[in-house]
Amino acid sequence: MRLKEKVAIVTGGASGIGKGVAELFIEEGAKVVVADYDAETGQETADQLNENGEAIFVQVDVSDTEAAEAMVEKTVEEFGKVDILINNAGVTADGFLSKMSEDAWDKVIDVNLKGVFNCSKFAAQKMMESDGGVILNASSVVGLYGNVGQTNYAASKFGVIGLTKTWAKELAGKGVRVNCIAPGFTNTEMLDAVPDKILDKMKNKTPVGRLGEIEDIANAYLFLASDDASFINGAILPVDGGLVLG
Questions:
Q1: Residue 46, number of CB atoms within 10 A of its CB
Q2: How far apart are CA 220 and CA 183, in angstroms?
Q3: Distance (Å, rounded) from C-alpha 206 to C-alpha 213?
Q4: Of 37, 145, 153, 221, which residue is the catalytic one?
Q5: Is 145 a catalytic residue?
Q6: What is the pTM assigned to this prediction?
Q7: What is the CA radius of gyration of the chain?
């Protein structure tokens, strides 16, 4: 077990990629905090995880500074420490620049960028007080090359890369590694309503000829969270089937 006795917080852990990460971490011996805004689904996920390991649910709006701090404090209260933070929570509110509202801009930046700042600030403090830890941020291929109609989302994901590189330099000497994953087109619930024609275009744009699966992303998080990646710091890992190659 690569994460035996480790304590991991997974934001946005109730569903999608976050849930997949939480499930894999449980299999690998970690104790998991499912942190999510959705109380009903979050508790259901934690209950499922408890069938094979130890997990709790904490409701959190990551854009709320006090809520993020309370999430970290609850983790330490329950499990005694924080070893791993997965900053997975994120939202979209797409629109062309000329039509994007200030509310749409603020919503995405608040969750996707400020949320990463909030959670990392408080988790890093706990990590530095103990034996160090690992912070893993979720960017996107959109954070590497942009995308039409996603001004706010692209800005947030470019920003996450900047945070990752800065914290990797700032925290490494204190025992905290910081890395980032940039998923490509991934087969989650968000694609359920996407027409087959569009899905086919996504596959055709990806050199390996398929969409990513949740397991692909979760396995990347597992590697970077484990001691196998102890000399990796400040990396931006595309998990996209070669999409960023163009």
A1: 22
A2: 10
A3: 13
A4: 153
A5: no
A6: 0.96
A7: 17
